[in-house]
Amino acid sequence: MATSVFLCLFVILLARSSPAGCAEDNSSASHSTEGGAEKLVLLNDIADVESFISSAEVAAVGFVQEPESPEASQLRLAAARMPEVPFALSCSPAVREHFGVTAARLTLFRRADKDRRDLDLNSEEIDADKMSRFIRMNELRLVTEYNPTTAVGVLHSSLLLHLLLFTDKKSPEHPEQMRRYRAAAELFEGKILFILVDINLKSNEQVMAYFRLKKSQLPALAIFHTPDEKNDVLPLDEVSIERVKDFCNAFLQKMQKEEDKPEEKAFSEEL
User: What is the pTM of this model?
Assistant: First the structure.
């Protein structure tokens, strides 16, 4: 089977992430650890943990045995560095059993694709830097900005249908475009992964080239089905909720018709 061209784009992006760039990403937003303990909420009730997870686009939960363990200390450091990510800590055996956790673990729960990612904390090499990096690589949101760090999470998402908005983040229209794009993303939550591709990022030029788009055609939408690489492209005069919704629904309907064709053929052959 031929290697996916789109998969190759992810690999190129990752290869271009220099070690220095990764180190910079880990240390960026290196806020004071003051207040870290308050940010890391201690939850030992299953209902409380579930409510905590469902209240955010991404939620990080550390499952440990003791609240003052070395793993918990590193989690506090990571939480202090990432104020926009809600962190919780649970030491309850009942909670760990409910979430299928048997050892110390950091779990990132994602609303965008109804999925989770786990990081084993038993290794002595796991520290706040690695925890922060793990979250940055896997924090898919309702709208995820595509770059060399988030490419990993996008590639391994359980959602096989991706919608990309190619646009200029420096444009005065960008805030309103994102408001509408995000509103549309909520309509397809758990069905389509919504992605923002900023054309100002040089590494994104290859993604744009794959869909044969030019800057003069932007903003534009591109929808991509990862298993078979089927895709469609739509240049836009403006980003609106209706245009995004109609574009997604049209592609979903086309895929459904193609899936129904083999069944119709098999039925006619039986007759």
Answer: 0.79
Position 109: which residue type? Answer: F
| CA proximity to 49, closest of 112, 116, 142, 113 | 116
Annotate 47-112 with three-state secondary structure.
HHHHHHHHCCCEEEEEECCCCCCHHHHHHHHHHHHCCCCCEEEECCHHHHHHCCCCCCEEEEEECC
Residues in the chain: 271
CA angle 53/56/61 to nearest 5° reads 40
| pLDDT on residue 204 | 92
Residue 270: per-residue pLDDT: 59
Structure tokens at 71: 């793993």
Strands (E), the chain: 40-42, 58-63, 87-90, 105-110, 115-120, 143-145, 161-167, 193-198, 220-225, 230-235
DSSP state of 17: S
- Segment 152-160 shows an average pLDDT of 90
